[in-house]
Amino acid sequence: MSSFLQTFLDPKKNFLARMHMKAVSTRLRRYGLRYDDTYDQYYHMDIKEALNRLPREVVDARNQRLKRAMDLSMKHEYLSEDLQKLQTPFRSYLQEMLALVQRERKEREALGALPLYQRTLP
Questions:
Q1: What pTM does this model have?
Q2: What 8-state DSSP symbol labels residue 12?
Q3: How far apart are CA 41 and CA 13, in angstroms?
Q4: How far apart are CA 20 and CA 110, in angstroms?
Q5: Using 50, 70 and 90 to split pLDDT, how confident is the model at 16?
Q6: What is the pLDDT of residue 72?
Q7: Does residue 7 sit in helix, strand or coil?
Q8: 102: how many CB neighbours lie within 10 A of its CB?
Q9: If I label 72, which of 50, 62, 106, 111 is the partner at 20 to 30 A Cα–Cα?
Q10: pLDDT exceeding 70 applies to what percent of the chain?
Q11: Do residues 41 and 51 lie in contact, with contact meaning Cβ atoms separated by under 8 Å?
């Protein structure tokens, strides 16, 4: 079942997945965002911890992209065509650190240790 699901979701093998990936890429390029920018640090504590572990320059670049996207959205504008072509929406910067944080959390739960962080209201 899982191999069928992986085949179904793989853009290289499935036409609908390829169309969806292209649509998402187009929308992210319009605002100059990357796919990892869409993760909300207030939604899941693992994302917040992964962002805290990233280098300051990476987090600052993420914040700048988000600010630019909000500014363009408020003005009902998009990036210029030449800047859209330069964007790399699926270049990941958060996935590796997020996977590491999730592995550490699962390991701590398996060993019965206290959680690394507690959920708090922002």
A1: 0.81
A2: T
A3: 32
A4: 37
A5: confident
A6: 96
A7: helix
A8: 15
A9: 50
A10: 90
A11: yes
Amino acid at 110: A
19-23: long-range contacts, CB 8 A cutoff, minimum separation 24: 21/90
Q: How far is CA 21 from CA 5, 8, 27, 96, in A?
A: 16, 13, 10, 20
- Round to whole Å and give the CA distance between 55 and 58: 6
Output the six-digit token pair for 48: 């917040």
Tokens of 4: 């069928």
* Average pLDDT over all residues of the chain: 88
- In this predicted structure, what is the pLDDT of residue 121? 47
Structure token pair of residue 29: 């390029």
Between these two residues, 90 and 119, which has the higher pLDDT value?
A: 90
What contacts 71, CB < 8 A, 6 or more positions away? none
Q: Three-state SS string across 62-119, please?
A: HHHHHHHHHHHHHCCCCCCHHHHHHCCCCCCCCHHHHHHHHHHHHHHHHHCCCCCCCC
The pair of three-digit structure tokens given for residue 102, joined into one six-digit string: 């999730």
Joined tokens for residue 83: 């800047």
Total residues found in the chain within this entry: 122
